[in-house]
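TICKET: design request
STATUS: open
ATTACHED STRUCTURE:
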């Protein structure tokens, strides 16, 4: 009975990459983690969407360039049909067109294949908890792009100036998110519970018309309300 309970708490993963050797190597490394459980593998975007709908994993670890359907379209489809499934991009490509297309499509994290296994495991755990995880190079692109105001994704262009709609506490929490703090760290600093932090974030998302921590921070950076970094 204890074994079943332990397994039920594991993070359920789908690996989506068109290179079988990459999937095999990644699987072997991740299966060493007691809290991770790979429930399926996809060799193309269409299969990733099908398996996500069928298996309802916690996280899909997704490559960008795949046959039949790209990682961008697969991410968009999965987020539309399975909104609770988190998407972590794991790719060798950091071109701006991919980065912003994937963030716009709803990706929760973006990691380069040059990352070591500890970084990958941390990223999986982070996005599974509903937080965002961007590789430093990707985060730099995001901040540079959104502070310059050039070529902004439509999802963030179509916004209204709702600064007055945020309470002082909500703005404070958004600023701490921009510094990279987790819900637990924010709660500890503000002397409130993790659940209360999440409730504030839900209100922030609703008021700003966004659906993730990443989008909220990018919106705030663009408006000049917060700066990123510690």
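STATUS: resolved
RESOLUTION: sequence designed for all positions
ATTACHED SEQUENCE:
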């Amino acid at each position: 009975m204890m074994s079943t309970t332990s397994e039920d708490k594991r993070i359920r993963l789908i690996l989506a990459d068109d290179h079988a050797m990459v999937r095999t190597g990644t699987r072997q490394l991740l299966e060493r983690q007691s809290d991770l459980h790979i429930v399926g593998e996809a060799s193309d975007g269409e299969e990733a969407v099908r398996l996500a709908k069928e298996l309802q994993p916690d996280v899909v670890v997704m490559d960008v360039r795949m046959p039949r359907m790209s990682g961008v379209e697969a991410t968009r489809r999965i987020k539309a049909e399975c909104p609770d499934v988190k998407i972590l991009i794991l790719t060798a490509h950091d071109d701006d067109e991919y980065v912003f297309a994937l963030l716009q499509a709803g990706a929760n994290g973006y990691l380069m294949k040059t990352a070591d296994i500890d970084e990958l495991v941390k990223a999986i755990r982070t996005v599974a908890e509903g937080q965002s995880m961007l590789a430093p190079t990707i985060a730099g692109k995001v901040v540079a792009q959104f502070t310059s105001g050039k070529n902004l994704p439509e999802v963030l262009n179509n916004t209204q100036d709702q600064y007055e709609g945020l309470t002082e506490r909500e703005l404070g929490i958004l600023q701490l998110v921009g510094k990279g703090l987790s819900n637990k760290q924010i709660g500890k600093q503000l002397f409130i519970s993790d659940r209360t932090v999440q409730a504030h974030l839900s209100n922030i998302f609703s008021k700003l018309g966004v659906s993730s921590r990443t989008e909220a921070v990018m919106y705030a950076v663009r408006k000049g309300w917060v700066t990123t970094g510690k």
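CLOSING REMARK: The longest strand covers residues 36-42. DSSP finds twelve helices and six strands in the chain.
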